[in-house]
Task: inverse folding
């Protein structure tokens, strides 16, 4: 039995624009997806995903035709739900040169699904790592990140960046621009997350931004302006001492950039009423800045606040189901067992 975990993430800046080659800075957070893999004697794959519900039931499925999940949902919905684990299995088989390898897989995650905290990337990274280790062919981290990216790219119909998967693999704060991925040395930032209990479909939201960008030059300019925010933000981070608490001035300046970043994401149509409500609740509570994180449409916001005010205020905000402080996960993918 091989058990591997990988962290979720928040975007300090740059989601969506990173799909078109602008830079982004995602930061891994201490909420993990854990994948357990046991190789089988036959070539079947059985998946038990207790956090993934369809038609009100936790998903348990196998790939043999007479053993599909016994849930009454349309096939596209089922494919969307099981796609990331299936893609991880395909990448592991290819990497280990074992096209007929079968597995029993179980997924256990602390990361809400489809909420912008990178649950898909964490599941794919941990899944590929666990499956290749179980086959005796462990991958180095660069190859793991690359294969996890290819899995997301396939499931999201060719619309994915390397940001989530690289961040989940390496941990910490990272910078991604096209194929160029690096780890950043940053001070610990006081992230607070608000979750509305909902979800957005990453593939659909990315397709919506792509369509706006294709049709309107000003939407393409908006994507570029998000890139400018990231460049501005990373120069602030580069000047900060990674080993000390960040100064109030730095948090204030990063927060201002986060506020502008949220406005531009909103202009591109990926915010929602509840995300906006949580963003404003955070700002009114004294957060230095707040923005949606990830694909949007519903799910999570991230705010910067060194005090408890934002977390407390979000807990009393009707549109917010859960609020918590998110520590930076300095460790990325991690072997838990054996
Ligand atoms: N615990 C889990 N078990 C099985 N699949 C999961 C789990 N968490 C995430 N996934 C997969 O990831 C998808 C959500 O990914 P996505 O829409 O990119 O949102 P995000 O990455 O922001 O959470 C789910 O539909 C499912 O396919
Ligand atoms: C919108 C995007 O930039 C981030 C998506 O993040 P998430 O899957 O919503 O956590 C897409 C991508 O980078 O692949
Ligand atoms: Mg995702």
Result:
């Amino acid at each position: 039995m091989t058990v591997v975990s990988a962290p979720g993430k928040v975007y300090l800046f740059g989601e969506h624009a990173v799909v078109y080659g602008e830079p982004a800075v995602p930061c891994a957070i201490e909420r993990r997806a854990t994948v357990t893999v046991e190789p089988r004697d036959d070539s079947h794959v059985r998946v038990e995903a207790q956090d993934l519900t369809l038609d009100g039931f936790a998903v348990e499925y196998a790939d043999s035709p007479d053993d599909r999940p016994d849930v009454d949902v349309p096939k596209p919905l089922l494919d969307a739900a099981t796609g990331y684990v299936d893609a991880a299995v395909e990448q592991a088989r290819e990497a280990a040169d074992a096209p007929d390898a079968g597995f029993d897989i179980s997924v256990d995650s602390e990361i809400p699904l489809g909420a912008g905290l990178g649950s898909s990337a964490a599941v794919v990274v941990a899944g590929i790592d666990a499956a290749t280790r179980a086959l005796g062919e462990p991958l180095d981290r660069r190859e793991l990140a690359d294969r996890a990216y290819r899995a997301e790219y396939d499931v999201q119909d060719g619309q994915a960046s390397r940001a989530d998967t690289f961040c989940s693999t390496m941990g910490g704060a990272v910078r991604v621009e096209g194929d160029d991925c690096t780890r950043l040395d940053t001070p610990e930032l006081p992230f607070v997350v608000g979750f509305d209990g909902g979800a957005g479909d990453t593939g659909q939201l990315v397709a919506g931004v792509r369509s706006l960008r294709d049709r309107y030059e000003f939407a393409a300019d908006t994507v570029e302006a998000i890139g400018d925010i990231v460049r501005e933000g990373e120069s602030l981070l580069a000047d900060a001492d990674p080993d000390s608490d960040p100064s109030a001035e730095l948090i204030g300046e990063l927060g201002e950039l986060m506020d502008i970043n949220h406005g531009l994401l909103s202009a591109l149509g990926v915010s929602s009423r509840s995300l906006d409500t949580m963003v404003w609740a955070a700002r009114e509570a004294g957060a230095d800045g707040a923005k949606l994180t990830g694909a949007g449409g519903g799910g999570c916001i991230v705010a910067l606040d060194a005090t408890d005010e934002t977390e407390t205020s979000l807990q009393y905000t009707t549109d917010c189901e859960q609020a918590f402080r998110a520590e930076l996960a300095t460790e990325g993918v991690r072997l838990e067992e054996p």
Notes: The pocket of magnesium ion (ligand 3) is lined by residues 118, 120-121, 164, 202 (CB under 6 Å). Residues 2-185 form a domain with the Ribosomal Protein S5; domain 2 fold (CATH 3.30.230.10). DSSP finds nine helices and twelve strands in the chain. The chain has two domains: 2-185, 191-326.
